[in-house]
Amino acid sequence: MVRKAVFIEMKLSNANKIRGENTTMHIFKKKMALFFIFITMTTVMLFAIPEQGYAAPANSSSIGIVDYVYLINKHPDTKNSNDALRSEAEQAKKEYAEKSVNMNDQDKHNLDQQLGQRIEQKRQDLLKPIMGKINEAIKEVADAKGLSVIVGKNVVIYGGVDITDDVLKKISGQ
Prior knowledge:
With about 170 residues, the protein is mostly helical. About 70% of the residues lie in helices and about 5% in strands. It has five helices and three strands. Helix 2 runs parallel beside helix 5 (about 165-170) and helix 3 (about 80-100) runs antiparallel to helix 4 (about 105-145). It is elongated, with a radius of gyration of 31 Å. It starts with a helix and ends with a helix.
């Protein structure tokens, strides 16, 4: 009987230890979850709500904003560049289909990476002159308006002078 009682007490003691560890771990997990929620909310508050007086009114700002992606999409050379890139991608697809017929998986993977790099290089080569023309137009418009800093529209919360339309007119020749 004594052995049974000791054995039962040991079982209960082990069960309490396990239950205690689980409770401690559960509390720890809750605290960590609350900590991460607090950090996330603090970060959102810092970036989503600017201080009063943080940004100057748009008419007195020396900061310009521009929608760069919009300007790339609207640039007159973009259509031809997209056509050339599409043609390069089709050529690479045909090349892959021809060369990969008797290749093992590793060689197919290497060929795919090589062709992908070639397409990416072509994209960069086609985009570089367009970006150069846009950057030049941005500088000219900024200088004409007396703006000392130009930032992307996607990073501005408040303020700044939007010069996107003026830059578009300049690159379009209007």
